[in-house]
């Protein structure tokens, strides 16, 4: 993904997040199957669209989006990416993610957490990256910064629920 496209993606992502109003999540789960990936979210998420996102769901509490990146396209762009951790590091650099987030490993994915203020509003993010076959999947979870201590447990639960076809 080109640097300009990544920045456009991030700007669109943050713009949509700013207009969300937080309330509590409703009960119940739903399995979302997009492309060759499945994630379990709560039933209060609604499918939406976001430029450059493979899929995008939002609720009144949070938003979740997935981006599938073909390894061959990264190679064709002259990038040497050999792991999900490499891809996460590239994403952090290319998008000027603040605070020097640390890439950590958790079971079947790597992740990093960060906060960013946009238009005087602080947001918190958990970004998980999966290495699957011929692609990398990046799944972003976001909410208002003040809600993150309460939401992060759900974000990790949802990130842990990701499965791919043929696993």
Low-confidence stretches: 16-26
Please identify the structural class as seen in this structure.
Answer: alpha+beta
Task: Encode the helix/strand succession as letters.
Answer: HEEEEEHHEEEEHE
Instruction: Assign an overall shape.
Output: globular
Number of helices: 4
What's the gyration radius in Å? 15 Å
Structural notes for this entry:
By secondary structure, the protein is of the alpha+beta class. The chain is built from 4 helices and 10 strands, in the order H-E-E-E-E-E-H-H-E-E-E-E-H-E. The chain has helices at residues 3-18, 71-76, 84-94, 148-160, and strands at residues 29-34, 37-42, 46-48, 55-58, 63-70, 104-106, 109-118, 121-132, 135-144, 163-164. Mean pLDDT is 87; it is low at 16-26.
Name a few traits of the molecule.
167 residues, 3-stranded antiparallel sheet, 4 helices, globular
Outline of this structure?
The chain has 167 residues and is an alpha+beta fold. The chain has helices at residues 3-18, 71-76, 84-94, 148-160; strands at 29-34, 37-42, 46-48, 55-58, 63-70, 104-106, 109-118, 121-132, 135-144, 163-164.
